[in-house]
Amino acid sequence: MHQDIQEILFSLEEIQRRTKMVAQQINQDYAGKTLILVGLLKGSVPFMAELMRYLTVDVRIDFMDVSSYTGVQSGQVVIKKDMEQDIEGKDVLIVEDIIDTGNTLYNIKKMLEERKCTSCKIVTLLDKVESRKIDIHADYVGYDIPNVFVVGFGLDFNEKYRELPYIGILKKECYE
Ligand code: PRP
């Protein structure tokens, strides 16, 4: 275990097992359809890669990179890199590593729906429901977690720890 990690919350094996279950649900729900997965950079990369391995529906992948500014009244998200595919008339599934306040996903979902996709759903590996400030829910959730500082499997603190092959709680002295 990395020296900055206080406790492992979900091991790689647990994440894989749970992701496979989520993927099976997605396979059922989108049977016979083509699904566009839109990963939000950068945190979603490991989860997206894991999820794709278990999907049997026809899939296209794309990525967006956005900055979110919580607490400001307008322009809550800024697109740094947009997705490449035209989603009009398509089924879209946004792939996230974590939902916290809900600000990012609320805005991205609204933006993608304005592009006239047929459906726009959300899958997230982690959901911090306690921290929600905007009413948005994920259609598929790996794990509900309490308000703890988690890193690993794509999640960072100051760009560190994304490479860890598990999700762990960061020691307090590392961020205070
Ligand atoms: C994280 C995470 C979500 C967002 C969740 O991204 O991946 O996109 O924050 O927070 P919210 O629900 O309060 O909006 P971040 O902006 O840290 O970028 P990253 O994926 O590159 O780490």
Strand order of the largest sheet: 4-3-2-5-6-7
The average pLDDT is 94
User: What would you call the structural class?
Assistant: alpha/beta
Stretches with pLDDT under 50, minimum 5 residues? none
Shape from CA axes? globular
Order of SSEs, N→C? Answer: EHEHEEEHEEEE
Q: Helical region count?
A: 3
Beta-strand proportion: 25-35%
Q: Could you outline the blueprint of secondary structure elements for this entry?
A:
Layout: E1 5-10, H1 12-29, E2 34-41, H2 45-53, E3 58-68, E4 77-81, E5 91-99, H3 103-114, E6 119-127, E7 140-144, E8 150-151, E9 167-170
Parallel strand pairs: 2-3, 2-5, 5-6, 6-7
Antiparallel strand pairs: 1-9, 3-4, 8-9
The protein binds 1-O-pyrophosphono-5-O-phosphono-alpha-D-ribofuranose (PRP).
Description:
22% of the residues lie in helices and 34% in strands. The protein has helices at residues 12-29, 45-53, 103-114, and strands spanning 5-10, 34-41, 58-68, 77-81, 91-99, 119-127, 140-144, 150-151, 167-170. The chain has a six-stranded mixed β-sheet. Strands 1-9-8 form a three-stranded antiparallel β-sheet. Helix 2 links the parallel strand 2 (34-41) and strand 3. The radius of gyration is 16 Å and the shape is globular. The chain starts with a strand and ends in a 6-residue tail after the last strand.
